[in-house]
Amino acid sequence: FIYAPEVLKTQIKNDRTTMYCSTEAELLQNFADRIEQFDIDIICSYDLINHDLPFIIGRMRANNLKQWSKLSRHIRTVYPKKDNLFSLITSGRMLLDLKSTFKNLLQIESDNLSSLVQSELDIDRPILDFDNGSFCLTDQRQMKKLISFNRKDTQFIKNILDNKNVIALSEHIA
Predict the structure, then answer these.
(1) How far apart are CA 33 and CA 79, in angstroms?
(2) Fewer CB in a 10 Å sphere around the end CB: N or C, the chain?
């Protein structure tokens, strides 16, 4: 999903792997809808627990979206208290936080995904520089570059998981 408010819907075409959204709320709704539609078993990300999940849930709350319960297999209407927040919001799905998994289970320290890719796959992962002001989400070439970059990251993660057999290890531990 790509949030690109500056891009007109007529300028772009969604395909089966890329969906452009004109608002943050639309992006978050589509994200939750796809998790429910495909009945995802494992939600996997690098720094899922400390960054990605709190960010996504926080943005869902800020946009007053009810779809937060679709992150779970159990539909809820009352937002959970902070004590059990992530376990209730994502109940019925396995959370695989690569950062903590690699650190705690495999004793591999990495500050970021680039250092993890370098140490485990011996590949220099390119870094997109969003801070220099030259990256524009309305430029189709740059959007395709961003999509390609994210697809490569997904492949890097898959290769690391395959090499370390992490999913089978996580299922065994759970």
Answers:
(1) 18
(2) C
Quick one: tokens of 71? 């992150």
CB atoms within 10 A of CB 159: 14
CA distances from 35 to 43, 58, 93 (A): 9, 17, 10
Three-state secondary structure call for residue 160: helix
DSSP string, 4-67: -TTS-GGG----SS--EESSHHHHHHHHHHHHHHHT-SEEEETTIIIIIHHHHHHHHHHTT-GG
Digit-coded pLDDT (tens) for 78-130: 776 665 566 677 888 888 888 887 788 777 777 788 888 998 899 999 877 66
**pLDDT (tens digit, 9 = 90+) per residue, 22-79?**
888 888 998 899 888 889 888 888 888 888 888 888 888 899 988 888 888 887 777 7
Residue 166 contacts residue 96 (beta carbons within 8 Å): yes
Q: Which residues contact 153 (CB under 8 A, 6 or more apart)?
A: 113, 125
Tell me the two tokens of residue 46.
Answer: 């690098």
DSSP single-letter state for residue 138: T
Q: Could you tell me if 72 and 93 are in contact, meaning their C-beta atoms sit under 8 angstroms apart?
A: yes
